[in-house]
Write a structure and sequence with these properties.
The protein is globular. It is built from 11 helices and no strands. 87% of the residues lie in helices and 0% in strands. The chain has one domain. The protein is mainly alpha-helical.
């Protein structure tokens, strides 16, 4: 009898694990788009860090991301169970924050120009020369910014994953969402670490000595990586800011029925004319919504900071 019960239990566990595996794959497919945005944003956040501090900074953000997931997974499950109506407003709030961050970056660059960038670069150069300066402390704003951005994107990933298993048992929901949280964190920051170290890999290959064809190929690959790395980082800098508007605008657009209706109508009208344009149009709408919301949020923030009494 006990053996039969144990076998039945093992059979149930095997079935659950099999279902969880399938559902996790489904959830992973649906969160792939956000993964791309997350990768672009976080690679951008850690760009500009001194070479020897790159991996420690990525690791610091990774730890922050895991802490975000530890907070978000139970919170999402609890909200989904007790107050499912609150998920959309909270996501929209996070989307508005992403739009705010994106627009603030653009506004800062336009208003302050290259002078602040030059001062920042000088501070980094001074920090590298002076061993007494704590480089991690110098880059703490980048780390905090990356973790804040990760928090919003992680929330979206978790909610998307939760939506794919909404009809399943609580145990299955918890297992799938937890697996997605771990997989996405390792995937994103593993790739970020690889991207920020491309130039070092290129330099390592460039310094290979020897006249063999193999060594010559290594040096050519190294040279190619050295040329490609700065271009990739510049691209990620632009892509990261654009992703903030696309992701934030998409979250807000899905929460506002009239915007979602406009997006669907655009697809219906454009599909017979041009399939590619029909596919791009909703993303353009998301970007426009993101820019508008970002501008409003930055405007309100600036007004608020001027109206509130300054600390003495």
């Amino acid at each position: 009898m006990a053996t039969g019960s144990l076998l039945a239990l093992l059979d149930d566990i095997t079935t659950i694990l099999d279902d969880v595996s399938v559902m996790t794959q489904m959830a992973a497919k649906k969160t792939t788009g956000v993964l791309g945005d997350d990768l672009a944003l976080n690679a951008q956040q850690v760009s500009g860090v001194a070479a020897e501090r790159e991996l420690p900074v990525v690791w610091a953000v990774t730890k922050g991301s895991f802490i975000n997931k530890i907070i978000l997974v139970p919170a999402a499950l609890a909200i989904s169970y007790f107050a499912p109506w609150a998920i959309t407003p909270l996501l929209m709030l996070g989307g508005a924050y992403l739009c705010f961050e994106g627009f603030e970056k653009i506004a800062h660059k336009l208003l302050h120009g290259a002078k602040d960038e030059e001062n920042h670069d000088k501070a980094l150069d001074q920090a590298i020369i002076d061993p007494k300066i704590d480089l991690v402390a110098l880059e703490k704003d980048k780390i905090k910014g990356a973790i804040r951005t990760d928090f919003v994107l992680s929330a979206e990933i978790i909610v998307i994953a939760l939506g794919t298993v909404a009809s399943k048992t609580f145990a299955q929901q918890a297992t799938v969402v937890s697996l997605i949280a771990v997989i996405m964190t390792i995937g994103v920051y593993g790739l970020v670490a690889g991207i920020v170290k491309l130039d070092d890999i290129g330099l390592h290959l460039m310094l290979k000595k020897g006249k063999s064809v193999y060594r010559q190929c290594q040096r050519k690959i190294g040279n190619g990586l050295l040329m490609f790395a700065p271009k990739l980082m510049r691209f990620l800098s632009v892509a990261g800011t654009a992703a903030m508007f696309l992701v934030g605008g998409s979250i807000i657009g899905h929460g506002l029925p009239f915007v979602h209706h406009i997006s669907e109508s655009m697809v219906e009208v454009l599909q017979p004319v041009n399939g590619m344009l029909a596919a791009i149009a909703p993303h353009l709408l998301d970007a426009i919504v993101g820019l508008i919301i970002g501008a409003i949020c930055v405007g309100l923030f600036e007004i608020g900071t001027k109206l509130l009494p300054k600390k003495t």
